[in-house]
Amino acid sequence: xxxxxxxxxxxxxxxxxxxxxxxxEKWRRTFAxxxxxxxxxxxxxxxxxxxxxxxxxxRREKLIKSSPGVRFMMNNLAKAGCPVKSSMMExxxxxxxKSGGFSNNHGIxxxxxxxxxxxxxxxxxIHEMMHMYDHCVFNVDWTNLxxxxxSEVRAAALSGDCNWSxxxxxxxxRKFTKQHQECVKRRAIISVExxxxxxxxxxxxxxxxxxxxxxxxxxxxxxEFY
Length: 226
Ligand SMILES: [Zn+2]
Prior knowledge:
This protein is mainly alpha-helical.
């Protein structure tokens, strides 16, 4: 799936304008965007989406170059026979409250309108790549709640969603505290509950509890760190 760059319609339109007008138009749009004056609601929304997309793509490229966690996962996916290209992590606007998603047909979706920081996007990329890794290495059936639960536990535990990846990737320190376990469990339950095959919160809890011990302790591909 290719990542979408600039709006082609806008490109085509601007190429026919004289240079002066282009500069003025850009200035007008920037000004209008800040003040909200002179833009229709629709224009404003389109502009915001375009800016968020660009920011998400720039961050993605930076993280691929410099984030130890993102690089680690990309290397391990390549080693496992499932190499990831940056175009397989597409920045898209999402209407749900989640920050990313993985689909075995479409790759990784990064919800450009839900990232509140570079670290948040970094964790989301690592989290979704953990699902990709599981899908590549283990025979995951995503309609099976226990399979899904296991991958969510691993992704939450190892991606830094529960806030320890910095220490881990920078210095190899790994702390499994009670708090960390609770955070992982809570996040995994929320994700499993969102599975179309999950009838209730109760079933999500059951699935997570059933696999928690073994999946929390299954730290592949991170084992080689210690
Ligand atoms: Zn997940």
